[in-house]
Amino acid sequence: MFVYMIECSDGSLYTGIASDVVKRLRAHYHRLPECAKYTRSRQMVGIAAFWEVEDKITACRLEYRIKKLSRSEKNKLIDGSLEILSLLPGAERNAAVRRAETEEIAETLEKIRQL
Predict the structure, then answer these.
(1) How do strand 13-18 and strand 97-99 relate by DSSP bridges?
(2) pLDDT value at position 115?
(3) Which of 3.40.1350, 3.40.1440, 3.30.1490, 2.60.40 is the CATH number of 2-113?
(4) pLDDT digit string, tens, across residues 6-51
């Protein structure tokens, strides 16, 4: 599972989860019928960050907590000065989470631009 944050044309950030991050981001980017209502009206312009997590429960919990953050806290999460595991309760902070590297984000963005 993946937790992702994308940048939209109005400067906002959208957070979501997906089992296939390329397929899901492609839906947002090309405004396919399965994309979120939010990104249908706000064109996706980039990938801010994404993380691979061990299971759907962890992904859902992180998505929920990220959506509750202020914009400045989200920016800290994106730049790495706020650790994503700190958003989980103590016992859950042992979850396996891997942050995508810059090159991986660039490769993913290139993949989703293709139909």
Answers:
(1) unpaired
(2) 66
(3) 3.40.1440
(4) 999 999 999 999 999 999 999 999 999 999 999 999 999 999 999 9
